[in-house]
User: Fold this.
Amino acid sequence: KTKIAEINAIDNKFSTSIDGKTSTKNMLEDELIEDLMPVKAALYAYSAKNKNEELKTLTKESDSALKRMRDPEILQKAELIKTEAQKHLTDLVAYKITETVLTELQEKITAFGEALDGKDTGFASRSALRIALTEKFDEADRILTEQLDSLIELVRKTNTLFYDQYYSARVIKDLGTPQKPEEVKTTNTTEPK
Assistant:
């Protein structure tokens, strides 16, 4: 029973290893864009007023254009906008962009970046759990083949029904490849004597 419990525990971790990471990342992305838009808009207005075409080009995307970007591009764009806002902070005060606003934006940038990294580590954890799960199944299979298949012989004469059912349960049907119904192969790991 302990092997089955170990297999179930690893399977549970495997099933939930990346659950929630995508929804968390999406939520943090929305929060980042929400905080980024006022800073971007202020920079755009400032660049238009001062005829700074380079800064104007950096800040021209709409929120829907930002949402269509790939995650690393959003992160890079947010960092660039924050850096430019920091450079022009004294001029952006008139647009209600303060050090506090930029600090909050930096917190959102950091959280979003960590969520992107966390998603990658979730996939790595899932791979390690798959290996652990395979190892636990191999251990359980060794117990069956090396111990129980031999011990079942002790009850062969006294409990024929159990003996026959045990070997029926040990028959493995290979359903991994499409076959015609009359060609389904069965493999018995140990033949009854």
About this structure: The beta strands are 171-173, 186-188. The chain is about 75% helix and 5% strand. The radius of gyration is 30 Å.
